[in-house]
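Batch job 17 of 40 flagged for manual review because the log was empty.
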Amino acid sequence: MKHDRPSQQNTAGIIRYSCGILFMLFSFFYLFCLQGEILAEAEYVYSKGLNRYHLLMGAIIITAILQLVQWAVSKLSQLPANRHALSYIPSALLLAILTDIDRDTIQHFSFGPWVWIAPLIIIMYVALVIVVRTIHSSSDDAVTSVKSQIFPDFIIMFVLMLIVGWIPTSTDVYHYELKAERLIMEKDYEGAARVGETSLRTSARLTQLRMYALSKMNQLPERIFEYPQYDGSKGLLDVTDTIPTYRFSPQNICFHLGALCGPSVHSTDRFYNLVLNDSIWNQHTVDYYLCSLLLDKKLNTFCKKLEQYYLQNDSIDGEHAQLPKAYKEALLLIGEPAAAAKGLIVVHHDSLTTVTDQEVIKRFNAYKELKDEWPNQIERINKTHREFGDTYWWYYDFSHLAKGELQQR
């Protein structure tokens, strides 16, 4: 019926534009907010550091290319309006292949199973288009409402979005690592320190990046236990971690601490000893070393080295109110408990020093009281973590017990 033609064209236009807007919004935000960091890493590695991926421009350009692919497919397939969303399948396929990458894929370039899955999907898609066009050509063109025609297209679009979002296998922690790495390269250390701050999940690599950011802000021993520490001293520096695809490697951390790590140095402890025994060490080196001792719970060695590097200009019985938070907390664990409750550090009846920060002493006593309130170990871990999870006391007592449970939250 000729008088129905304008109405059908208007309906087809509404479907095309609504599907186009929906796909472009999804593609842009998916690339910019969720997959941008991993694409930036891939661009850096594959170009051998010559190119840098811009998150905003990259999302815009890729979305525009995918939309052009859809336009070409739409012209070739001539699908009916109420199945217009099917023309987005090739674009969705390309988007899925582009974002289905992880560290292994980046290190060892491979299309993986997409080598046979993608051609199979294309063959099935061509067959689907033929079937849809055949069914449409044999059916009548009865006029139906816009809502009833656009509904199947929206269902198809949402299914495509769900499939594209479900395919990538990279973890949230890996994305945190890449974001922190990029922010460090941009010298946004505060931003890097905040990456993933609300999550209890982390990795040695992510912890290293965040601790480096704290060190650059001269806040490492103040804030180190605000973050989950699951890897001991390797969460600060691991000179054996030599993956070549890093944009920011452990060698950069070593340089920050005074010197690059030579190929003959096979352990982080050896690196610390070499740097500290030379004149090239700095305050960052000292804090990294002392914090590594705390993370490995070597309190006796920590006490000796703290006196050597921090307390050398004061009498051993002096007041050391200017010590960073983690060091004050560690000192209260070293001596006799009854004396520590008053801020006195007494070892074998010898008074070593005095912690005069009353707030720290008050929290230490509150921590001990709360810990003694709960005989059940799981309850004790959870209750103390809520209030004192950012202290060295909690790390020293429970980190080895609570790691798995906290990571699964």
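Reviewer: the log was empty due to a logging misconfiguration, but the result itself is present. The longest strand covers residues 350-354. Unflagging and moving on to job 18.
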